[in-house]
Write a structure and sequence with these properties.
Helix content is about 60%, strand content about 5%. The protein is mainly α. A three-stranded antiparallel sheet has the order 1-2-3. It is built from 13 helices and three strands. The protein has two domains: about 100 residues; about 180 residues, Intergrase catalytic core (hpI Integrase, Chain A, Orthogonal Bundle), CATH 1.10.443.10.
């Protein structure tokens, strides 16, 4: 009998059982963590980040996580992902360890920080002409087109985020005085405790779209799918992004820096170009820190800066 082979097989079986035990333990942690998160995009993001960390631990044979492992994980993220993705994964890691700390496990992620983001924005704003072309060229001969026009009009005049458009219900529209508002569940909020004002044209576009629907309750989603597979269901962020992307392509816009979030940048930029004060633009954007709004003003000032032209004038003399 080959005892060496037997010993190797025995060790292989032990390794297999150990890996299975670790897998089951990690699965149970993820399941328990998942139950503490509210349904939605944020939960999806946190769970994706938690899985990423556990997958890294398994791939690197990390059985008992130490502080140096957390640092090594962050270095792995920085070497393989953009700063925004690194920050998202680190945020998820912190959330996971906050959960584990309540179970008596030392919080090893409390002092870890995300990657530094570059100044400015990762997405560009549309030009005014581009925004006009988009609205003008949406085919409103179909109910999908009428819906899409209402969505684009809402984005461009309110600066809403994609998740805020997804979460909107019909009942969130209300009147106060001579104005119509939409209640919004803002970024990081648990309730619809913020509002945006609807212009006459935006409200008209929404009402034309709602007139096409067989509405049973005002608690229904504001924007729904008309596809055969999911007819009547709430439009999710992915579908909204697809609508925006197709609308962009229809007028020849095909840039990685022009996305759904560009519509938010565009609304804030257009407000300032149109004469809104910094404070008014901040209220539109619902920025907690006015310095965030100031970036938009700085970008506009840069556009008006004639320094390069002045240099060229001297060189041409």
């Amino acid at each position: 009998m080959d005892y060496a082979l037997l010993n190797n097989n025995t060790q292989a079986i032990r390794d297999l059982l150990l890996n299975e035990k670790r897998f089951n333990a990690n699965y149970e942690v993820l399941e328990a963590f998942s139950k503490t998160l509210e349904e939605g995009l944020t939960k999806t993001t946190y769970m994706r980040g938690a899985r990423k960390f556990i997958e890294w631990c398994e791939a690197n044979n990390v059985i008992e996580v130490q502080e140096e492992d957390i640092v090594a994980y962050k270095n792995y993220l920085k070497a393989n992902f953009k700063a925004s993705s690194v920050n998202s994964y680190i945020t998820s890691l912190k959330k996971l360890y906050n959960f584990l700390a309540k179970k008596g496990i030392k919080n090893l992620a409390s002092d870890i920080h995300g990657a530094k983001n570059s100044k400015g924005f990762k997405r560009d704003a549309l030009t005014i002409d581009q925004a006009k072309d988009i609205l003008k060229n949406i085919d409103k001969s179909t109910k999908e087109g009428i819906r899409n026009y209402a969505i684009m009009q809402l984005f461009l005049t309110t600066g809403l985020r994609t998740i805020e458009v997804e979460r909107a219900n019909i009942e969130d529209i209300y009147n106060t005085g001579n104005c119509t508002f939409l209640r919004v569940m803002g970024k990081g909020h648990d309730e619809k405790d913020e509002v945006v004002k609807l212009t006459y044209e935006t409200l008209k576009a929404i009402n034309e779209y709602l007139a096409l629907r067989d509405i049973k309750s005002d608690k229904e989603p504001l924007f729904i799918s008309f596809s055969d597979r999911s007819n009547g269901s709430r439009l999710k962020t992915r579908s909204i992004r697809d609508i925006v992307k197709k609308t962009f392509k229809n007028v020849g816009i095909n840039s990685d820096r022009l996305t759904t979030h560009s519509l938010r940048h565009s609304a804030i930029t257009f407000a300032l170009i149109g004469g809104a004060t910094i404070q008014e633009a901040q209220q539109l954007a619902r920025h907690t820190n006015i310095n965030t709004t100031m970036i938009y003003a700085h970008n506009l000032n840069r556009l008006e800066n004639k320094a390069e032209e002045s240099i060229q004038k001297l060189l041409n003399e």
